[in-house]
Batch of 3 targets.
Target 1
Amino acid sequence: MNEYDSNRVGDLLGESHGFEITSKPEEADLILLNTCSIREKAQEKVFHELGRWKKLKKLKPELKIGVGGCVASQEGKNIISRAPFVDIVFGPQTIHRVPDLYQSSLVNCNPGIDIEFPKTEKFDYLPSPSSKGPSAFVSIMEGCNKYCTYCVVPHTRGHEVSRDKKDILEEVRALVDKGVREVNFLGQNVNAYRDGKDKTKGLGLANLIRESSEIEGLDRIRFTTSHPFEFGQELVNVYGEVPELVSHLHLPVQSGSNSILKLMRRRHTREDYIDLISRIKGKRPGISLSSDFIVGFPGETEEDFMLTLDLVDQIGFDESYSFMYSPRPNTTALEFEDDVSPDKKKERLSSLQNKIKNNANIISRRMVGTTESCLVTGVSKKDPGQLQARTENNRVVNFNASSHSMIGEFINLDIVEALPNSLRGVIA
Ligand code: SAH
Ligand code: SF4
């Protein structure tokens, strides 16, 4: 989501305000930092980075520095207390006001702070997104009302608001006209997307996927991140109806233990999750699944953790993300005793990550010998003589190609080797 927001600010400053992007901070007139506060570590990085830029400002006093995103939303004026050389503070919902904040900072000595949540206003003021390749993000909803006990998102991004379906479809059409072949619908809780007043779980997203799949030239649809609680049967059914919807689903479960899920206020049980996956597999056998996990949540016993490991084996997750619990401001879990020791958290994280990695390797090796439909996304990062493509389950495949004309196209690749972080393929 932050990547999407950053690109949109870049588009806005470039298109309507004549800015150019530079990769050299010392050349910049304005430096913006988009921030994440999901875990404490991400938040601390913000102040380290700002410390580096403070030196640049000494050399070039007219340089303006802005901080946006969830740390800005959470900390507001405190950003200025900790880093008084910052000129602009903006939130995730006020990215469209950055040009005005910048203009004011040129004439005003006081820092400009704007961290309101003005619903979907930002989308009315942002230019149509530029595309940088065949795959694009499209934000369809923002915010979250779930208040999982550990999570800052409802506090920093505000409550769920969905964009107008007509506007989203227009944005998708515009991207396809610019050569995009794959869209990734984005939202903190993407399947809570609502079209109008309809309350049926998952129906809004299901219909959006159905309608987007009819757009000529759009061949692949993804969405992220979905929540098991909002995954109604309507959305499950789409896997049986829409071939453009990828055979890969990222569906965070966080824990395999019902008592921890309850303490986390996830609104589903382990059994609900298993049942949901089996219904999805009923519509789309062979779908690849990934997830997010938190280890060391307050009260997590060895037994609870074993249940998480067991769920990983039972579902056969591929390429998941796992994190140590990090206490966050304003969240309910702050009231719980953070009773799993840091060493225990580390130990659990590494055993979970080993298991996840092993599973991912097994799946990669199983892909050797198959032919995969892949979207060619660009030049290989390792070898400029090769191109890079992505499989439906989001794996990178590097392959030899004589020209770059395939970039942006779907091709069939025979998978010939599985490496730890990528696959090797040859054109089928
Ligand atoms: N809306 C999505 C996830 C958004 S946050 C969902 O509900 O599944 C992305 C991930 O960050 C979460 O899935 C969770 O695994 C992790 N996360 C969020 N808050 C955290 C915290 N306080 N400590 C550790 N990990 C956290
Ligand atoms: Fe955070 Fe996701 Fe829970 Fe919302 S549903 S509170 S974003 S973890």
Target 2
Amino acid sequence: MAPAISTIRTVTGMRRRVAQWRNEERKIALVPTMGALHPGHLSLIAKAREKAERVIVSIFVNPTQFGEGEDFDAYPRDEKGDLAKLTEAGVDVAYIPDARQMFAPGFATRVHVKGLTERLCGASRPGHFDGVSTIVTKLLLQCAPDLAIFGEKDYQQLLTIKRMVADLDIPVEILGAPIEREEDGLARSSRNAYLNKRQRELAPLLQRTLQDMAYDLAEGRPVEDATAASAFRLESAGFKVDYLEVVDPETLQPVDGVLSKPARTLVAAYLGKTRLIDNLGVKPKQRNRKRAS
Ligand code: AMP
């Protein structure tokens, strides 16, 4: 049986444990989550275990990254189930601070990353990335890991955290991990639990549409054309598209015309009230160069 995981709920407790590991010269990884753990989270943990000798998984359903009218209250919570999964996965510490630990009376600070956060999810969810950046900064300062792992599932979030850590000189390496999918291609997400049977059957179309779009873009179909056709396909099937864009994979600025270099397609779409996101790397096909005569 795997050894019992230790659960730490206070900042001082977490700092004490990290100081002890530092004395032992252990390499430490942090995987921040909001709980309701699924195989997507577990893939991040597996990567953390490969890269470090001690692994902390934080569970904090961060109220400041949910907007007005979003699903903070309904967000799935299952601490007991999560602890069983973390024990099984060989995690050393489950760090589960409560809101009082995170927000002392008089709390007044926000971390805001300009540029990267203004479009896409940032435009549809005002304040979301400030909430994420502020809490991730706190978790990084509390746990002081050598590295922290974030999923490419939240691609805009991953880039935002990398920017923030570089700008604030936080001494941590940020690593991305690929998207884990269900067998039918749907990106794993705690929010998939909200989908009813009909919506769940429809949901993989999001990923299939991105795949088909990647093929068309590689073949030289202009971005505007491929995007409009794909959005129409999703809307016709019953999705409400929030955004569907082909962007530069570093700056997230839109690209247009025929692809000349690698890009990323990002999508957010609603099925009923459930907002799903997904993304995929795209690149132009290497065309055979004409041989010089
Ligand atoms: P969350 O609990 O949804 O805040 O996610 C915690 C971390 O897990 C974030 O870095 C997410 O990007 C990552 N994550 C969530 N779903 C997946 C997935 N399907 N594949 C890979 N990483 C994921």
Target 3
Amino acid sequence: MNESLSLAPLRLKKDEERRLRAGHLWVYSNEVDTRATPLKDFQPGQQVQLLGHNGKVLGNGYVNPNSLICARLVSRDPAHVLDRSLLVHRMNVALALRERLFDTPHYRLVYGESDQLPGLVIDRYGEVCVVQCTTAGMEAVKAQVLEALDKVLQPQGVVLRADSAVRQLEGLDAYQETTGSVPDSVTVEESGLNFSVSLQQGQKTGWFYDQRMNRARLRNYVSGRRVLDVFSYVGGWGVQAAAGGAAEVMCVDSSSAAIDRIHANAAANGFSEKLATVQGDAFEVLGQLRADQEKFDVVVLDPPAFIKRRKDIKAGEQAYHRLNQLGMQVLAKDGILVSASCSHHLAEAQFQRILLQSSRHLDRSLQLLERGHQAPDHPVHPAIPETDYLKALFCRVLPS
Ligand code: SAH
């Protein structure tokens, strides 16, 4: 039986199908013809057939009447519903890209909408995977997601990290579950180095694969230099800098668990002697380093997103401004600043403007050397700006 025949319709208002036709996958609640298909008639996560105002089928998706993004398109082919078979197919397509890109099985396997799996993120750590379902529609097929993953990869263990803040927007609760066998620590290989991370206790899914290419780039700038890695987490940038020949590396993070791992990761790669850590608030530590007139040849600033929602834009931009100014103040003459932002609400041009303003405020001049973005295991969906979030600007900071 063709299951899609049994899907309830969700009809859009006149002209509101244009964005979907242009490639987007989301429907906002004000775009639904609620007289024809009242949103309150749907269960959160229910699968539907999306119809244009004229009744033409746009494809299949799922609904959440309680969310501003009230529906997401899953397939433009009306014969395909979100079931195990479609999940297996999409995961295989996603896997083919990652296998082409990377020699070792450490990567983001599925990146939501960009891999045509709205609301699903899967990170692979060799034999173990971390799964995040961020929408009611994906949560509703959680069991099929796990079955599909088992068919595609046969992981030895899976951690379901249902603790990301975006789940609240969908009215979903927070929890963490484990299936199979998941060790306390797993090892990630990146650019020839090994990092140990905790999948259950670590930040987000345990490791930030998105910065991989940018960390590799850093190695070109550090030979013989003194490097500061701020918001260092488990030492992703700092240990790469040590491997790139840095004379000395200092990592700063507020989390004591992260600091412990940095030491373990430095030791595992043979760089304990050149790597020091400071536990504390980044802004305070930078202020203290400035007061002590400490100077670094390379400063990396890779903070958590300061702008999570549109209404945080102003305060967030100020935080980026303050942070980058502090970063520049501890840079030696002719220093390199690597400044990142993972806030998708902060456009690259605006981020660049903030760096320029920070440099002018200190009477320095800036050369923009390289612009890094998220690694290709986080593909950008060209119709969905939210999927394009990471900026890493490599700048040379000179006296004016
Ligand atoms: N640079 C890291 C990722 C950073 S994640 C990497 O490439 O892997 C953000 C990190 O910032 C976390 O480890 C968190 O503990 C730390 N953090 C958050 N707020 C902080 C603050 N105010 N001061 C210092 N560290 C902070």
